[in-house]
Please model this.
Amino acid sequence: MRDETKCLHSGYSPKDTEPGALPIVQSTTYVYDSTEEMGSVFDEPTKSLIYSRFANPTVMAVERKIADLEGGIGAMCTSSGQAATLISLLNLCKSGDSFISTSQIYGGSVNLFAVTLKKLGIECVFVSSDASADEINAAFKPNTKAVFGETVANSALTVLDIEKFADIAHSHHVPLIIDNTFPTPILCKPIEFGADIIVHSTSKYMDGHALQVGGVIVDSGGFDWSAGDFPGITEPDMSYRGIRYTDVYGKSAYIVKARMQLMRDFGVYPSANSAFLLNLGLETLAIRMERYCDNAMKVAKYLIGAPKIERVIYPGLETDKYYPLARKYLKGASGVIALVMKGGKDSAVRFLDSLKLASNETHVADIRTCVLHPATTTHRQLTEEQLKAADLDPGLIRLSVGLEHVDDIIEDIEQALDAL
Ligand SMILES: *Cc1c(COP(=O)(O)O)cnc(C)c1O
Model:
């Protein structure tokens, strides 16, 4: 099936007289006739359902759909994008381990990696997404367990050279984890370029309607865990009768471990109702992404010629530094544009306050056009140095172009610029 078809048909295939729309299985529990049968599910939890802290039929249908869209063999939804990022790494790293991440990533991820994981004894070594192969190689240590990067960085809009990072990670026998939130699998499938694990904040384009926070981890099934040093996956898990995930679950070892061990213990699973809403967003994802790209391209071209704007960053523009990488990896540059106002922070704030149609909100990839000033909001916790490392100018505005008529979006920007 093609993506448009997967959006509508993957994950749930109703049989004779079953509901045509994905049903919401709003239940914490699943009943068994026999105690013995129920006991056997505790031995083999992937066989059936036990409890909605780590598996639910509505959520599982969405997991299959997203895995299908990304070209992975399995997926696990989480209650937020942050939870997906956290679990994707805790599934590989324990206290005393380290991993490498590009610095051009979501501000919340920077904080998680540099502050909170550090407190847990897991060290993150940051490298620029523009780093040379030598610089990336130099960041590896004997205890490095993963490399992490973002396809299109929120909010710097740098594009990652996925193939390069995958090749280097693999030469050190560690997986590449990619946050693919901005492109979604409609615009980029990082697994095709060598990525091993994909994470998303589904709160963005996937949900698409600004209705619920969520995340997902997708496993490509392609990484050879036994070739690296991953005892948590290849050695016996005493919390599951001493099974070895690679022996019992083969290519699905990583994603099964994430569910059976970490979701069981941390319990960051989404509700069935949230998954139902996420599924509605996914059904129109392919068609929405196309329009986001079209609208954003028109807005970016308008902004380039507009007065009072110093710089426009949109990897879809031929003049953009990341245009060559965008051409290689993306079918479209998605709907997010960054612009730097002449006059820095002050004129940025006045411009934002003059917009009438676009809303000023802590969100991105909304169905409605929205704007945000990262330096005073989402990236507020970062130091000047971290802001610089993340390529974020204090006068930078993140403009998330929505699905309104593009002329209305441009007219709104025009009147706000006139008001300056
Ligand atoms: C929003 C976002 C996150 C965090 O997701 P939440 O759903 O808000 O927890 C992670 N990565 C990227 C790229 C994001 O845009």
User: Anything to note?
Assistant: The two ends are 50 Å apart (CA to CA). The mean pLDDT is 95.
